[in-house]
Amino acid sequence: MKTNWLRRLGLTSLLAFSTLPPAHAQAACPGLLDHQFINLQDGSPMPLCQYAGKVILVVNTASKCAFTSQYEGLEKLYARLKDRGLVVLGFPSNDFGEQEPGSDQQIAEFCRLTYGVEFPMVAKTIVKGPGANAFYQQLAERTGSTPKWNFHKYLINRDGSEVVAYTSLTSPDSRSLLKKIEQFLGQP
């Protein structure tokens, strides 16, 4: 009888522990991030929910633009702050002046070879107008700001409740952008 009771207790304890979330469980996915894209670098599915709990800098990019050199600053920013929770997400788009005419493979190679880009990027997409992807439509609705050119930026806080827009003229090392990133990184 004592053995049966211990077995039940052991089983009950095991069941109780098995219902606890793992210590490394990901934050709940805010509705804003409930989108999936294709990863530019390897063609795999790229659910944005994997970035829940991170501070996200979303940038529509192009390889043949006067702002293309911002890739360098974006990569430096990502490398410096990724361990603290910053993710830079690149969204290549041919929407402005047809300055991203290449294939996904050409874009990925250009970014890697020219600027050493390691931050995640999605396959080429539309970011403006009625054909804009749903994620960009939500970002525009939330901020009242649509991209006017390449390298427009949206900064999203950890829980997706706050989104701030920055024009293409805002460089990755801009004081105002860095200050807001630090503020968002300091929030739980």
In short:
This protein is α+β, with helices and mostly antiparallel strands and 188 residues long.
Features:
alpha+beta; Glutathione_peroxidase; 5 helices; 188 residues; 6 strands; 15% strand; peroxidase activity; single chain
List the helices and strands and how they pair.
Layout: H1 2-18, E1 36-38, E2 45-47, E3 55-61, H2 70-81, E4 86-92, H3 104-115, H4 134-143, E5 153-156, E6 163-166, H5 175-186
Task: Explain what this protein looks like in three dimensions.
With about 190 residues, the protein is α+β, with helices and mostly antiparallel strands. It has one domain (about 30-185): Glutaredoxin, CATH 3.40.30. The protein contains 5 helices and 6 strands, in the order αβββαβααββα. It has helices at about 1-20, 70-80, 105-115, 135-145, 175-185, and strands at about 35-40, 45, 55-60, 85-90, 155, 165. The strands form 2 sheets. The chain has a 4-stranded mixed β-sheet, with helices on both faces. A two-stranded antiparallel sheet has the order 1-2. A hairpin with a 6-residue loop joins strand 1 and strand 2. The N and C termini lie far apart (about 50 Å). Mean pLDDT is about 90; it is low at about 1-25.
